[in-house]
Amino acid sequence: MNGAHDMGGVHGFGPVVQEENEPNFHADWEAKAFALQMSASGGRWNIDMSRFARENSPPADYLARSYYDMWAYGLEKLIVESGMVTPDELAAARDGAHFEPVQTPTFGPEKVGRAMRAGGSARVEVDVAPLFAAGQSVRASIDAPLTHTRCPQYVRGRIGVVDRDHGVFTFPDTHAHGGGPKPQHVYAVRFEATELWGSASQGGAVYVDLWDDYLELA
Amino acid sequence: MAQNLDQSPDDDHGQPDDHSHGHDHSHRHDHDHDHGEFSELSDVELRVRALESLLTEKGFVDPATLDALVQYHEEKIGPRNGAQVVAKAWTDPEYKAWLLSDDASAAIASVGFEGGQGEDMVVIENTDVVHNMVVCTLCSCYPWPVLGLPPVWYKSAPYRSRAVSEPRSVLAEFGTKVGDAVDVRVWDSTAELRYLVLPQRPAGTEGWSLEQLAEIVTRNSMIGTEIVAAP
Q1: Residue B165: enclosing H or E segment and its boundaries?
Q2: Chain centre distance of CA B219
Q3: CB contact, 8 Å: A21 with chain B?
Q4: Is B156 a catalytic residue?
Q5: Chain A contact for B129, CB < 8 A?
Q6: In the list A146, A185, A189, B186, which could disulfide-bond A160, CB 3.0-4.6 Å?
Q7: Is pLDDT at B34 greater than 90 in this prediction?
């Protein structure tokens, strides 16, 4: 979707400001929001659904929220959409209500280290033929789906050159909406800065990771 | 195991946070209703408290797991990990070749770093003629096992919007000058590959130990917004 999250090339946000000796979390609630998001899914949703939950919001709202506020916002949507809680329960919790257990937690603290070190690769071990090869010129799709996509607006319709084939990965556009992984190749595609920004280019190039379904030969 | 973690190391998400860390959002919520026992909390604190009580009391989340997750990400990952990888690549040509191959994840795992948001690593080398820098314009994708959780600036709207369109201006804001003839390559992490920049080893470090070398490798040099300064 063409949401406020798709920021590449947008003007007006001002300078990049660094913070010295920055902590990972600036308040306890940030750490809590992080850990809740990391532990709550129980396989009920995937990372692409999580991203869509956050980006599918009014642009002004997306821009006004701080980073971990946005995580909390996405988690609120995910736990309701997945049927874990009702909207009424969520509202009641904010007013201090308490709840009876409906299950025993399955992801205990003793599993954290091993699970984090294992991760969860989106690479899919299936034999799918690549549609493109390094060195070929490709054009990014102009599609502007209302649903989740990882093809940013600033490359749509633009021509680049395949730099390398990363292999076969889950396709987020379907995976975010219950449509399955639709495994396909992902390529790093080099777009010359002049192709993207015209006379405003500062030279060089942008490399964007794009799936087969986003590309056609150019 | 951990079916919970199936895809849930949910990385990323991105949030513009130029008015940083938002401790106080009181200007955004002029609620006049009573929040009972939580009435002293800000809106976002209240919402996160509600999520925590709801999910833990219903048994979806183990409270001790929350603490363990925070502890893991505070203590086990961070840019000192990536600095060890860089130092090794600077001193071991075979290791460097492995790191720059399409087997980078294994090369990094061999030093002890692997896991969520670093499952499929790509390492890109800065040279006299190429300067790489990494961004995630769509959210906040970042190689956690080697760099830790991303700093606020990396997740902020200014960086996400401008790194791709005016990289040299962004580099200048970091005090980084790149020659006009250098090919500036910006890598937008739109997929599940996670990028680590292998910065150039500065002159004057000949004969240094791995530990000495790792000490001078900065986080930003591995994102590509800085170069490693000569001693």
Answers
A1: helix B157-165
A2: 9
A3: no
A4: no
A5: no
A6: A189
A7: no
Please judge whether A66 and B22 are an interchain contact, meaning their C-beta atoms are less than 8 angstroms apart: yes
Pairwise CB contact (< 8 Å): B13 & A152: no
Tokens matching residue B121 = 């690593």
Active site residue B20: no
| Residue B141 among the catalytic residues | yes
pLDDT digit string, tens, across residues B199-229 = 999 999 999 999 999 999 999 999 999 999 9
Out of A18, A84, A121, closest to residue B119 by CB: A121
Taken as a whole, chain B contains a residue count of 231
Q: What per-residue confidence (pLDDT) applies to B230?
A: 85
Question: Whole-angstrom Cα distance, residue B136 to residue B155?
Answer: 8
d(Cα A59, Cα A73) in Å, to the nearest integer? 14
Question: Which has the closest alpha carbon to B160: B126, B186, B132, B125?
Answer: B186
Active site residue B161: no
Residue of A nearest to B131 (CA): A204
Nearest beta carbon to residue A13 from set B18, B151, B191:
B18
In the prediction, which pLDDT does A64 show? 96
Q: Tens digit of pLDDT for each residue in A66-116?
A: 999 999 999 999 999 999 999 999 999 999 999 999 999 999 999 999 999
Please state the ipTM of this predicted complex.
0.98
Burial (0-12, 13-18, 19+ Cβ within 10 Å), A113: middle
Give me the mean pLDDT over the A143-165 stretch: 98
Shortest alpha-carbon distance between residue B169 and chain A (Å): 8
| Closest to A130 measured CA to CA, from A178, A177, A180, A189 | A189
CA dist B198 to A182, A208, B176, Å?
Answer: 33, 19, 16
B116: which 2 tokens? 């969520």
pLDDT higher than 60, residue B10: no
Chain A residues closer than 8 Å to B14 by CB: 5, 54, 67, 70
